[in-house]
């Protein structure tokens, strides 16, 4: 496990050495500014986005998707009764890679599961984070 902390720039890119595999957990901690519209956490191959996790404050939703050869798939939207992210508050997202899906929790509360659309997990070798948030800690 590699741990990065304190004053990380956004956008931020980290290599996932050895790629993903079942039981691997990636955590991202940060703070949402008061004027945030949206941010994203992407798990990527060399050319595709295997998992796009995108909280959208302007839509009060969390959108997940996959981009293959530059083409986005069908969005999966989670419209939580209580949006797990709040402007002005810190958060920790944990993405657990399972055999057939990603399990995502926010502040230790399960939020959603997203079925793998790119099942070659070992080819997912990059973590990208960007948008409206202050990044404080990442572990891969």
TrEMBL record:
The keyword Nuclease does not apply. PROSITE patterns: GALECTIN (PS51304). One of its GO terms (molecular function) is galactoside binding. Residues 12-140 form the Galectin domain. One of its GO terms (biological process) is positive regulation of gene expression. GO terms for cellular component: cytosol; nucleus. This is Galectin. Pfam families: Gal-bind_lectin. The lineage of its organism: Eukaryota, Metazoa, Chordata, Craniata, Vertebrata. It comes from Octodon degus. Keywords: Lectin. CDD domains: GLECT. The keyword Ion transport does not apply.
